[in-house]
Amino acid sequence: MKILITGGAGFIGSHVVRLFVTKYPNYTIHNLDKLTYAGNLANLSDVENLPNYKFIKGDIVDAEFISDLFKNENYDAVIHLAAESHVDRSITNPLEFVMTNVIGTVNLLNAAKELFKKESSKFQKFYHVSTDEVYGALGETGMFTEDTSYDPHSPYSASKASSDHFVRAYHDTYSLPVVISNCSNNYGPNHFPEKLIPLCINNIKNNKPLPIYGKGENVRDWLYVIDHAVAIDAIFHNAKTGSTYNIGGHNEWTNINVIRLLCKIMDEKLNRQMGTSEKLITFVKDRAGHDLRYAIDSSKLQNDLGWVPSVTFEQGLNLTVDWYLNNEEWLNNVTSGNYANYYEAQYNKR
Ligand code: NAD
Ligand code: TYD
User: Fold this and answer.
1) Does the global pTM surpass 0.85?
2) What residues form DSSP beta bridges with 6?
3) Of the residues 53, 127, 135, 156, which is catalytic?
4) Residue 7 near ligand 1, beta carbon < 6 Å
5) Is 132 tagged catalytic?
6) What is the pLDDT of residues 258-298, one digit of tens each?
7) Which of 3.40.50.261, 3.40.1180.10, 3.40.50.720, 3.40.50.2300 is the CATH number of 2-188+223-250+294-311+339-346?
8) Of 12, 9, 10, nearest to 225 (Cα)?
9) What CA–CA distance (Å, rounded) separates 260 from 114?
10) Pairing of β 2-6 and β 244-247
């Protein structure tokens, strides 16, 4: 198979690319990425020379470029991860999210549809990677299932919900063979340090404040990124056309408890006196429209495909902290220059 993976230089995409190029040496994997602030080819330096891997720099918003690419490469399948992914950025710049997440997805769908309808086409799957945030927010109880109605609250989740609707519309209207998965919050190596866990790892390391929005009572359902990549592999190969799968680790934590656990792990690893890092916790102004709680019911995935997470949160968080402490150069690179300026400006605004 010749597969186009979009957004493969980002956090989750790089783990998906690595899994596919190493596990399936007979597949050809093209990684299409614009290399925004979140895209980093260093994430894939260990596999970049493999013969079944090729990087293509490009923008999914450029319809002509995407159309030509599909015509020339005659792909068998697409795994689409490219997106603007940070909720806080979507609050300051919603249009960028509409462009990449909605228009970019529709450009890919159009190109896939044109390829699919050709008689000579081998095109068999458009796999759209999405988020549980499309379902909105839960109260104290309940879980999102695949049948939960969409109710997005942030510009990010609204743009992802819109892209999910377009993917289903192309299935229903043009019979395009599509699959969608909606996953909970990921954490792990290569996570850009603007998101809660890597931001706090970096700040603890540098003795900087740990900004907790509101009272830290919001709940997220955390999944180790490699478990997400393994689920994507299982769904890509086994899911029925037109189906949707929720992916999550049954691993709900309030933000404040995530950060307390992280502080404890880092005090141990940095040989600091227990309690040192917790002193850095700083409660800051809440995020606008901050969803209270996400929780995923992934029993369909477990029952149909036998997928279960491979690590507990404590194990995954230990592995993650080790990765950041052992990859100082990566962390220094992405926290210098434009990104550092952006973060400082945002932080000072709070
Ligand atoms: P990320 O921000 O780390 O990476 C996104 C990648 O897409 C980057 O490499 C970036 O350069 C690329 N990109 C952005 N705009 C592009 C464009 N116009 N054209 C081509 N490439 C472009 O994001 P992530 O956290 O790895 O998320 C990947 C996907 O998984 C997204 O679709 C996201 O909505 C979804 N998702 C993320 C999470 C999470 O917790 N991070 C959870 C569930 C679903
Ligand atoms: P984030 O990592 O941005 O993921 P998402 O918004 O997609 O869930 O945030 C995770 C949780 O942590 C969310 O409830 C917002 C909160 N948060 C903070 O309290 N402080 C921060 O500096 C950030 C980035 C997030």
Assistant:
1) yes
2) 32, 80
3) 156
4) yes
5) yes
6) 999 999 999 999 999 999 999 999 999 999 999 999 999 99
7) 3.40.50.720
8) 12
9) 51
10) unpaired
